[in-house]
Amino acid sequence: MDMSLINWPAVIVAALSGFAVGGIWYSRPLFGNAWMTDSNLTVEQVEKGNKGKIFGFTLVFSLIMAANLAAFLAEPKTDVSWGATAGFLAGVWTFGAIAIHSLFELKSWRYIFINGGYSVVSLTIMGAIIGLWR
């Protein structure tokens, strides 16, 4: 791993892509209604959430995730295909962690697949961005 090969603008764009994917993924027409039901949340409760805290920490954690993925991809041979593959594999890893936590929290399989699926898709896209923007 050669840290000088990390493209920091690509890391930032990759992190921001998580917002775009999340906005679509957790929209009410797609998985938002099912996620709220399985999380025992109402629209009113979600709307009362501290948006600054939620989106601020989301940005921090997305940057950490993208930077970590970029560190693993900091090799001259990295391209969009390998980036997407590494992102997908990282997503499978995080899917497993989400599943374990959710099973102990007695969450439904639908909840696990909604949250785990988001992780797989967002990390795959992050990896593709990092791999493409070399």
Automatic annotation (TrEMBL):
Segments traversing the membrane: 6-26, 54-74, 80-100, 112-133
Presence of the UniProt keyword Transmembrane helix in the record: yes
One Pfam entry name: DUF1761
InterPro entries linked: DUF1761 (IPR013879)
Alphabetical keyword list: Membrane, Transmembrane, Transmembrane helix
Record has Transmembrane helix as a keyword: yes
Domain of life: Bacteria
Record-given protein name: DUF1761 domain-containing protein
